[in-house]
Write a structure and sequence with these properties.
Elements (H helix, E strand, L loop, with lengths): L1 H24 L5 H6 L2 E2 L9 E3 L9 E4 L2 E4 L1 H5 L7 E3 L6 E9 L4 E8 L14 E5 L35 E8 L2 E6 L2 E7 L3 H8 L16 E4 L6 E10 L1
Antiparallel strand pairs: 1-13, 2-5, 3-4, 4-13, 5-12, 6-9, 6-13, 7-8, 7-12, 9-10, 10-11
GO molecular function: hydrolase activity
Keywords: Signal
InterPro entries: AL/BT2_dom
């Protein structure tokens, strides 16, 4: 019995140590990442480096909670404006890595190549999107090309790799000279050359086919979407290529 208790305590201690070590690594760069040219887009404490689309500051609906950027829809009920959160900087060739977690029945997205101009009222009018969703309980989960990891409304994931609601998902988006590749939890979900015949066909079969400016800007902001549901993003980093 004593041996069993000691063994159990050792296992519990190891799990706690692993959990603490993992938490310490979030929103930080390793020496290897720094050497490779990675930079943090979110410091885990402030919204520095971000602003609400077409605004000079960050909407009060976006908060930093427990080391994550959290969209709080309840804040909008008390008068706070919402809106997509976008990077201050613009990027063209890069690898983007981050983690996201969605609320039950929630919807959001990672939008890139965003051209910020008052004539485009929303980020998605110019920027393609990697979908963020509760596939099981949001209505979009039943729509092809609208699931987590998909190139939203354009190309379905090669494999469903999303984790259950409440768990963190790991994303990597690579965009190099027009070649766009998505990974979700280590699984490659999408690969397509922007501007290619395949891309043009995907666009022609999507809701974006008549949208002026959609997907045409090679350089642009990266956005985290306010779709009206609670969502969390953290460990956001980028390496320009």
């Amino acid at each position: 019995m004593i041996r069993s208790i000691i063994s159990s305590a050792l296992i519990t201690g190891a799990l706690i140590t692993t959990s603490v070590a993992t938490a310490q690594q979030v929103n930080k760069l390793t020496p290897k990442e720094e050497k490779a040219g990675w930079k943090l887009l979110f410091d885990g404490k402030t919204t520095n480096g971000w602003h609400t689309y077409l605004q000079d500051n960050v909407s009060p609906a976006w908060k930093v909670v427990d080391g994550a950027l959290e969209l709080d829809p309840e804040a909008k009920k008390s008068g706070a404006h919402g809106g997509d959160l976008v990077t201050d900087g613009e990027y063209e060739n890069y690898e983007l890595a981050l983690q996201w977690k969605i609320s039950e029945g929630g919807n959001s997205g990672i939008i890139f190549g965003v051209h910020e101009d008052p004539k485009f009222k929303q980020t998605y009018l110019t920027g393609p999107e990697m979908q963020v969703l509760d596939d099981a309980k949001h209505p979009d989960g039943k729509i092809t090309k609208h699931n987590s990891g998909d190139l939203y409304d354009m190309k379905k994931s090669a494999k469903n790799a999303v984790k259950p609601v409440g768990e963190w998902n790991q994303v990597k988006i690579r965009k190099k000279d027009g070649l766009l590749t998505f990974w979700l939890n280590g699984v490659q979900t999408v690969s397509v050359m922007m501007g290619s015949d395949e891309w043009k066909q995907l666009l022609a079969n999507s809701k974006f086919k008549t949208w002026e400016g959609f997907g045409v800007y090679s350089k642009g902001h990266i956005a985290l979407q306010d779709h009206g549901n609670k969502v969390w993003y953290r460990d956001i980093k980028i390496r320009e290529l």
